[in-house]
Amino acid sequence: MNERHYERKFYHDLLNLVSSVRGISEVIKDVDEKTRTEMLSLLGSLSETMIETIHARRLYCNLLGHDLKCRLASVDCERLLKRLTDIYTRHTLAENKAVRVSPIEKQTPAQKILLNTDKDILLGALGYGVRTALESIEPRQAITLGLKTDAQNRIIFSITFPGSISEEVKELVFKEPAGDKIGLTGHSAYIFSALITEALKGSANWTEHEGAITLCAHFEGNGLTR
Amino acid sequence: MKRVLIVDDMRINLMILAAKAESIGCHCEVVESGTRALEVLDTFKPDIILTDLWMPDMNGDKLAENIRKLPDYRELPIFVVTAENDGSDEFNMSVFTGIIQKPIDDNRLKEVLSPE
User: Fold this and answer.
1) Do both A60 and A81 map to the same domain?
2) Is some CB atom of chain B closer than 8 A to the CB atom of A26?
3) What is the DSSP secondary structure assignment for residue B46, as one 8-state letter?
4) What is the per-residue burial (b if ≥16 Cβ within 10 Å, else e) of A170-207?
5) Which of A64, A177, B78, B111 is placed for a possible disulfide with B49 were both Cys, Cβ 3.0 to 4.6 Å?
């Protein structure tokens, strides 16, 4: 699928979101109190989704144009995970779906998980992983975000969601998609992997276990404090 | 009173379209998927369907194609409500009675939903 397709999809999604915002502004004065409250809440969700959609597209364009500039700083990974959860809990892709966080796995309870990286690129990269998961699951299913460190001080972000992947497409995971496929062979999974490996010099992999798929981003822990 | 079946996977779009249609005197049923739309056809008996185009379980054109196969609904007006332009080559737009472009123009909606 060519770039024009993704560009068109981006403008479609954006116009869709803006149309919803305008629609709310047109009808909100005439609806009952309960509906008004729900619409106001959805307005927040639409705004968050619009911001995320624009950021994600900009990141993708910079990746394509080899124009990603990493601004390294010490990033608190737990805070970043919280921000990621906040964005996608309210995202329209998560409608009728759940975004959960598993307990952080640290070497010691007091450990602060710090990573010297570009916060915005890391947030965007993990966001593409979350998109992959949310696009793959059915309504009323959940995805689970995780963060852990291991004995070698590596930092691992994970995104787990129900699903399985057939033998014949395993080779295609994280590859540049030939079609508008969703899931591990889709556009979002490819960008997740490309940003983690090319821009942030980490590694990305996936595993499948007992009906669940897990996407992982691994980084050498260069800033763990205890 | 026109009976309008609205199909969209985004709840906010269902709420907005239903509020607009009801304000011009329509009776609405809203469903969040193409599969659900097919299930409620015989109980709700719509006079017209307004459907989204991109939906996870069944795109709007596939829904319309499935409805057109049912003898009782072959002639049912089905309008697609979309931010996609009408030059789309990825969907079978010919299966729809017409298009309502997003952002929705209230005059266009009235024209489509007004009693004959």
Assistant:
1) no
2) yes
3) -
4) eebbbeebeeebbbbbbbbbbbbbbbbbebbebebebe
5) B78
Residue A12, chain B, CB below 8 Å: the answer is yes
Counting the structural domains of chain A, the total is: 2
Domain at A117, CATH number: 3.30.565.10
Cβ proximity of A103 and A147 under 8 Å: no
Residue A21 lies in domain = 3-64
pLDDT (tens digit per residue) in B56-89? 789 999 999 999 999 999 999 999 999 877 556 6
Instruction: Provide the shortest C-alpha distance from residue B71 to chain A (in Å).
Output: 31
List, in order, residues 6 or more apart from A137 with CB less than 8 Å away: A97, A143, A161, A162, A163
| Contact between chains at B83 and A19 (C-beta distance less than 8 A) | yes
Specify the length of chain B in residues: 116
The pLDDT of residue A63 is: 92
Can the peptide bond before residue B103 be classed as cis, meaning omega within 30 degrees of 0? Answer: yes
Q: Which residue on chain B is closest to A45 by alpha carbon?
A: B12
Identify the CA nearest to B41 among candidates B61, B12, B82, B69: B69
Mind telling me how many Å the CA of A16 is from chain B's nearest CA?
A: 6
Which two structure tokens, joined as six digits, stand for A82?
């919280």
CB B38 within 8 Å of CB B66? yes
User: Is residue A159 in a domain?
Assistant: yes
**Same structural domain for residues A96 and A172?**
yes
Q: Give yes or no: residues A57 and A83 share one domain.
A: no
Domains of chain B: 3-113 (3.40.50.2300)
Distance of CA A216 to the CA centre of its chain: 12
A129 CA to centre of own chain: 4
pLDDT in tens, A107-138: 888 888 999 999 999 999 999 999 999 999 98
